[in-house]
Amino acid sequence: MCIIHKKYVNSVNLVNPVKKYKQMKKLTIISAILIILVSCGKKSDNGMENFTKIDSKDIEGNFIEKMADDWALITAGTAEKFNTMTASWGLIGHLWNKPVAVCFVRPQRYTFEFMEAADTFTLSFFDENYRDALNICGTLSGRDVNKVEKAGLTPLVLDTNSISFGEARMIIECRKIYADFFNPEKFIDAKIPAEIYPTNDFHKAYIGEIINVWVKK
Ligand SMILES: Cc1cc2nc3c(=O)[nH]c(=O)nc-3n(C[C@H](O)[C@H](O)[C@H](O)COP(=O)(O)O)c2cc1C
User: Fold this and answer.
1) What average pLDDT does range 128-155 have in this prediction?
2) Which residue has the higher pLDDT, 122 or 9?
3) Backbone angles phi, psi at 125, to 5 degrees
4) Is residue 107 located within the same domain as residue 33?
5) Range of the domain at 99
């Protein structure tokens, strides 16, 4: 048996198996270190290293309060071209067996064009010290000024290529699954269109499946 083994080793010109095993081990360790280094480098490139992913069921706080009082930024587009605007109307819940977020955008907003073209959008929430930034994004249009620069926000490209901001404390990332305008004929309470839409600029509602929720570490 021993002779056959030796013959076999010699015939295929293999090095000592123990030596080979050690070399393989060394190579594996070096590869693992390289992979870790590369992935760390990638993370620190885009700012995502400051965020951790949570389950949508673990979102903390009252969502009515988050929208009505804290406000959010709706952002859509690509790293090359995107737009963002402040929103205080929005919903979060469970629909079609999916966790969903819904936001409402009037057609005259510059953001509307981006919401129409994009497959994804984000809702970004901030601490109170970003109130001025939210006021800027809610009163100026991306058509006229670079709001992001004016608001002092840092664009953040997420893994799925949707856009948010490094300063956000929570990012809800959504995949558009349904969108439509409110229909004036369908209002059961006629006071709402009279009060909210005197010029008939009905919001378009965008329902997004929540694909990721990120919170600041
Ligand atoms: C607190 C606040 C909440 C707002 N909520 C909404 C909203 O839910 N939907 C909407 O269409 N516009 C909303 N707006 C208005 C837009 O944010 C605003 O018109 C913005 O300048 C649009 O920017 P854009 O033209 O760059 O898209 C809100 C503004 C503020 C200040």
Assistant:
1) 98
2) 122
3) -115, 145
4) no
5) 52-216
* Cα of 196 from ligand 1 centre, angstroms: 14
Copy the structure tokens of residue 73: 């930024």
The answer to whether the beta carbons of residues 50 and 166 sit under 8 Å apart is yes
Q: Is the CB of 109 under 6 A from ligand 1?
A: yes
Mean pLDDT score across all residues of the chain: 89
* Domain identity same for 111 and 147: yes
DSSP β-bridge partners for residue 84: 75
Which amino acid is it at 170?
M
197 lines ligand 1 (CB under 6 A): no
Per-residue model confidence (pLDDT) at position 215: 98
| Binding site membership of 71 for ligand 1 (Cβ less than 6 Å) | yes
Query: pTM for the complete prediction?
Result: 0.83
**Does ligand 1 lie within 6 Å of residue 182's CB atom?**
no
**79 and 164 part of one domain:** yes
What's 127's domain CATH number? 2.30.110.10
105 Cα: distance to centroid of ligand 1 (angstroms): 8
Residue 88 CB–ligand 1 contact under 6 Å: yes
Whether pLDDT at 36 is above 60: no
